[in-house]
Amino acid sequence: MNITFRQLQVFEAVARQLSFTQAAQELHLTQPAVSMQIKQLEEAVGLPLFEQLGKKIYLTLAGQEMFHYCRSIESQLDELETIIQDLKGVRRGHLAISVASTANYFATGLLAAFAKHYEAVSFSLDVTNRASLLRQLENNEKDLVIMGLPPEELDLVTDAFMENPLVVIAAPDHPLAKVDGLSIHQLKNETFVLRESGSGTRIAMERFFAERGLQVQTSMEMSSNEAIKQAVAAGLGLGIVSLHTLALELEVRRLVVLKVTEFPILRHWYVVHRRGKRLSPVAEAFRQFVLDRAPEFAVVARH
Ligand code: PGA
Question: What are the residue ranges spanned by the domains of the chain?
């Protein structure tokens, strides 16, 4: 059977409307053009598809069969279009993300919410400190990186999307816990539990004190925010961490934020990739999701 898509499209409109005039209007054709397409289709099929009784037209048995198959061809074409979109990578593939350990307090929730819309995409989330994020960026290993303080020495596309306030934390029974309006000079004799070197939090803290000509005393170095919080709660000293890591501890008063006048140290979170990198459609969609929605996933308790 030598028939065309155009003929089927015209036939579908006439059969649905049961009117040559209305089908012509819908398809922006003249009525003779519609009649011509139907005539050619009937010739190709070898049977009449419509019959006229009085002023009305009806589908013949062959017309009914043709209408049924037209509909299923149409829905198959829709399906094909979705599959083609998928193959273009809009909703398939793999997304590799790396985030600073501190960013993980909101990044996991963010990724989980995004993943619900992309069931056919597989995800990997690497949680690591700033130093190893730099290595990954240098080697172009990940699709996207979420970090504070992007490095200037690499050619990157960086977009700030949310504030990242760093605060001083103490155990609730610490002598400074109830003091209002502390100056940083009053912290001079306090001992701090530090993040590992290579951590963005640590760099920001050291820079902050150095700019003010202060050298704080340090007791221990720990390689995660969780370890710092445990150590501070256990009375090992003060700590400096992002407010984003503290929702639970502040809620149950396991830790308190000291009221130091020059705090918080205000930093920002950035979504980052190498300039010139071709982001996949999924990666681009996630980048946009981060820019639009991240603050909803960063739980900040009152303090
Ligand atoms: P980090 O966080 O301290 O967990 O490396 C990164 C940053 O705050 O820059």
Answer: 5-69, 84-162+268-297, 163-267
Identify the pLDDT of residue 90: 67
Ligand 1 atom at minimum distance from 164 CA? 8
- pLDDT for 82 equals 67
- Rounded-to-integer distance, Cα 11 and Cα 167, Å: 70
| pLDDT, mean over the chain | 92
- Cα–ligand 1 centroid distance for 209 (angstroms): 17
pLDDT tens per residue, range 222-277: 999 999 999 999 999 999 999 999 999 999 999 999 999 999 999 999 999 999 88
Q: Which CATH class is domain 84-162+268-297?
A: alpha beta
Whether the predicted pLDDT of 29 surpasses 90? yes
pLDDT of 184-234, one tens digit each? 999 988 999 999 988 999 999 999 999 999 988 888 999 999 999 999 999
- Give the distance (Å) from ligand 1 centre to CA of residue 210: 18
CA of 225 to the centre of ligand 1 (A): 10
Q: Which residues line ligand 1 (CB under 6 A)?
A: 100-102, 129-130, 147-149, 195, 199-201
Q: How far is CA 162 from the centre of its chain?
A: 14
Span 5-69 CATH architecture: Orthogonal Bundle (1.10)
Supply the pLDDT for residue 55.
87
Q: Tell me whether the CATH fold assigned to 5-69 matches the one assigned to 84-162+268-297.
A: no
CATH code for the part of the protein at 163-267: 3.40.190.10
Q: Is the pTM of this model over 0.85?
A: no
Q: Give all strands (DSSP E) within the chain, no chain letters.
A: 50-53, 56-59, 93-100, 121-128, 144-148, 156-170, 191-195, 217-222, 238-242, 256-257, 265-274
Helix (H, G, I), strand (E, B) or coil at 260: strand
Burial of 30 per CB tally in 10 Å (0-12, 13-18, 19+) = exposed
